[in-house]
Amino acid sequence: MRQGYNPYKDNKTKPLPFSHQVVIPVYIPHQKDYFKDSFQILKLCIGSILKTSHPKTFISIIDNGSCNEVSEYLQNLLNSGEIQELTTTKNIGKLNAIIKAVAGQNIPLVTITDADMLFLSNWQSETVKVFNAFPKAGVVGLIPQFLTYQNKSENLLLEHFWNKKLRFIPVKNPFALAKFYESIGWEPNYSRAKLDYILGLTAENGHIACVGSGHAVATYRRELFNFDFPLYNPYKMGGGSEQILDDLPLKYGLYRFTTYDNYAYHLGNVYEDWMQKKFSTLDSEEKELTLKETPFTKKTASAFSQFKEKLMNKALKSFKIRMVFLKHKGLPKEVRKYF
Questions:
Q1: pTM for the full model?
Q2: 37 Cβ contact list (under 8 Å, min separation 6)
């Protein structure tokens, strides 16, 4: 039976003193074959976040069915206060793990990252600068990649088609761009032009961001998870599960961006000496940069807007039409065929 009155009943929760949440799903079932170096790489990933993040960062890790050694390491991080949240579960899939982490929180920015990323100094402040410069930014990635403007950025391209500040610009960090494709196993047989030019948008305050974003590591406006975000996904990976995250900004007419410079390295599943050397050069925690308050309400893109975006998507797949667009946006003639 129950006696007395629960003193916490009807008490409101106090706002947490955090401005940025980092979500890391972790699945390392053993330490052999494909996962031989994964534990070592995970330590670099988490260590880089701890080293480069400001004190108001709430780190959520979802242990998605890892082996005992990894689980014990993560539990020790929680016990020592280095991370703020640890959820331990069976292998329920990447997106379901993310769903668990974002539920029950109300932190303005949410970075979702794979467990094989090395975060670089100033990644948080540079992310906030993009959100502050572009009020319609919905997601901001940290790793510039090839042709991201062609994937789920049709709304931005349409709305800024005549804007002279939407232009092809020099790649800020060609070395890091090439390093990303090396990390995912690409041979360097792609056109050098892709390391030279990228589509960028310049804000009113002069800040530059790359158009489009990948999903291996990216920061989302918290509000995007408050509307129509699923409570369950049937796939462990793939099966369109990553597209759910990619589609979030478009559903509400927001844009996908990436920082102009590179602020993270993808490490993959094979350890290399350069990774530890790069880790040792990272600066300690940075100061928090204030995020401007941008009013956000649930305003789903109209059917007409979605129709226009589908037309833009088809148009970009047409070689002739794409060449006209590339010319209009200042890409030199001799390299257009590679974009």
A1: 0.92
A2: 269, 270, 271
